[in-house]
Amino acid sequence: MDVDGAEVQTADRAWPAGSAGLRYGGDYNPEQWPRETWPADIALMQQAGVNLVSVGIFSWALLEPQEGVYDFTFLDEVMDLLAEAGIDVNLGTPTAAPPAWFWKKHPEALPVTRDGIRLGYGARGIANPSSVAYRRAAASITRALAERYAAHPALKMWHVHNEYGAPVTEDYSAESVVAFREWLERRYGTIAELNRCWGTAFWGQSYGSFDEVDAPRTAATVVNSTQRLDFARFSSDALLQCFVMERDIIRQFTPDLPVTTNFMATNCGSVDYWAWAKEVDVVANDYYLVGERSDNHILAAMDSDLTRSLAQDRPWMLMEHSTSAVNWQPRNIAKRPGELARNSLSSLARGADAIMFFQWRASRFGAEKFHSAMLPHEGVTSRIWKEVTELGARLGTLAELQNSRVRDEVAILWDVESFWAQDLEYRPSVELNHRERIIAFYSQLWNRGVTVDFRHPTDDLSDYTTVLMPASYLVSDAGRANLERYVEGGGNLVVSYFSGIVDEHDTVPAGGYPGQLRSLLGIGVAEWLPFPEGETAELSDGSQITSWAEDLIIESGAAVVETTYAGGRAGTGAAIVRNSYGAGRTWYLSTKLDGDDLGRLLARALQAAGVRVPDSKPGLEQVTRSSEAHDYTFLINHTDQDISSAVPGVPLTDGRPDPGAARPTVVPAGDVIIIRADRSDGTAGRRSVDVDPVAR
Ligand code: GAL
Question: Is 163 a catalytic residue?
């Protein structure tokens, strides 16, 4: 161990550290309970099959009651009890909730909002990440914890901070402004370059030096959009610096243990997780159902698929989800029988090797006393407890799934910088909503049983038969070159309207819309035709359209008009255009399609490239994880009717194949069945070679 020097290099900190089987557990907050409760907690954890708990996430005030004075009594005892019981610890650094003594001494570290309000304390959430005092205090408690527990037998991994970026990402204090100027100087080198990239000739915004630049705080009207975009980039980077600082301290003491922090993949729009994922040893994620949406299991699946993609397809951890209702939605809808297992097993199906909850035991006081838990207020007689123990037992039989991977041939592009830019003011219509479009595309693929990865526009896409771009307003020059390379090499790219409109500086490239994609798509857009609220129209194939149409110009001789408008704002002009480019093809959808109209188009584009679109059953989630030897197909029935499925293979009952099981498999209403098939029996391949000749 090198406590003085630079980072110790280790061969592999990949998770799970030396453990066999899947992980099960949750956040454990023993500090909220008298110590007599702890042995009972631990006995119940054993009963539920818990083998990993996250401890100490909000314990800073207890562990360091005065500056530089440490008291590890409670944590020592809890760690020892857990070690004796064979339950591993994912130890939190408590830096998301600095103690009151810190705030009294350093009020300047409290975040300032865009409107200039300095926030108070008595809650949680990060201080200004650029605050020197905050970083110093966070480093001290991290070092003290790492030093004390480095050799503790219960310690198996580190959980740094909690949900960076929530509830506050951007800070507008004086210290942040200084750090922002330094960040800009590193990015642009000279003030002339900043002026060029920010387009400061507009509204007389030119700067004479970096010292004149402010944070893009609330102003009389719209602030320079590139300044806003850069401030979002800077803010994500400032938080990431805090993570890296803590991680590097920890690595000095426990160089072999994985260090992570909990992401909120689709739900933290203020942090660029592509950059963060490179810095964690294992990707961990929190996801809470949107209780009131009837398609909430589809949104959950999308979040899992994005998390797996951030993890570059390595196993990931579902660090938090809920056993039933949360406490912070407008109406906190309880999960009904079986839902807890369906949600958990959907994450497992989509590549998670750990299923964890917030939290172990329901709090009796504080803001989260009405949040569900593994052990609810109702205790061990509750239905939730029964389902928690059943799930623990089931996961205990599924060790062979550990490290198996989901293999996809379709990717959706996901670029948070593009979302930041698109969501600024003065766009052509309030109905342009990147999240809504991604969900619309994703849902149609989910409905058809096609599992997708997410990728950044600059990632190597050559493994994907088809790439979808439902909303990519901003495409950098590097992204543009990468997409051209992908299609030229034989790729199949499906692009929705309002994509490729600006470059990385939120600047429209010379030559008209969609500048970054114009030659690739073989079209130009003469004019956008956003609809007034409530207006609808039709396409020539009878599809309904809303919100948006375009006057398209066909530019490439290889472009083929698939579908035209059938009257309305765009007359009878081209609506959907297919183009050939190199060895590949593109599809451009210039209007807003929904539901089955969208689904049919996507299925056609996928099939044209040889993607097998399975015969799906409504409400049956079907996903396959594969090891070297086996395919494991999860059949998750989200309906209240039994559904039969002819997926080849044998169902796993209590972790063992059940050769006597009836064929075809009947998945009872609300239930989950896992089918195991040998990869050698020819069922492993997900690709089909049937290519629609029309699209060649
Ligand atoms: C998460 C957070 C947990 C808990 C949970 C409640 O965002 O990380 O500490 O507050 O929400 O749903």
Answer: yes
